[in-house]
Write a structure and sequence with these properties.
Elements (H helix, E strand, L loop, with lengths): L1 H16 L3 H14 L5 H12 L6 H11 L4 H13 L3 H14 L4 H13 L3 H10 L8 H13 L3 H14 L4 H13 L5
Helix pairs in contact: 1-2, 1-3, 2-3, 3-4, 3-5, 4-5, 5-6, 6-7, 7-8, 7-9, 8-9, 9-10, 9-11, 10-11
Length: 192
């Protein structure tokens, strides 16, 4: 039965992504009615309402997903994104960290935690999460931009510029890297 529910839930999210949110919600309600003990439909319902910017709904759906499956890293991550959008930094960080404790390879949760730690001046934890977002010598532009910002704070301007450039090479529109690169050049004009 869970595979059947999964088969219903995935197309529902696809409907939403193609602009048919109401149809996706209907499909998810059917999936929940079929098996209320399967967490994905609750999580997907939260994603749809969050994408629609109906922020009163998603929290309940994500919490239902977590009640159904307490080790659901993606539901913690999505709940963290919701709290982050609402500027609830403490709750968002708690959710991102929980997601990474459940799944240490959750790249987006590590990056989100890193940026919140950085925002709050907890450099060591920010650096750790950015590095964990890039296992096995992989690279991610948002993690590189975060590490570069830490380099600037530690006055390692050349390292920061290298990382910002690498981030922009991977994603030429990466806003943190664009802004940070200009700042790094301003702070270190004599060294470059």
């Amino acid at each position: 039965e869970p595979m059947y529910v999964q088969a219903q839930a995935n197309p529902a999210l696809a409907c939403h992504r193609r602009g048919f949110s109401d149809r996706g919600i209907k499909e998810l309600r059917n999936a929940i009615a079929t098996n209320p003990n399967f967490a994905d439909p609750y999580n997907y319902m939260g994603v749809i309402y969050m994408d629609k910017k109906q922020y009163t709904e998603p929290e309940n759906w994500f919490k239902l997903a977590l009640d159904t499956y307490p080790s659901y890293d993606e539901a913690y991550y999505n709940l963290g994104v919701l709290y982050n959008v609402q500027n609830k930094d403490k709750q968002a960080l708690d959710c991102f960290v929980k997601a990474t404790r459940i799944n240490n390879k959750h790249v987006e949760a590590h990056i989100a935690a890193g940026w919140l730690y950085l925002k709050n001046g907890v450099i060591k934890d920010a650096e750790q999460h950015f590095e964990l977002a890039m296992p096995d010598n992989t690279e991610h532009p948002r993690a590189l931009a975060g590490l570069a910002m830490i380099d600037v704070k530690k006055e390692r301007y050349e390292a920061a510029i290298r990382r910002y450039r690498k981030a922009l090479k991977m994603d030429k529109d990466q806003p943190d890297a664009k802004k940070g690169l200009a700042e790094a050049y301003k702070k270190a004009p004599d060294r470059l």
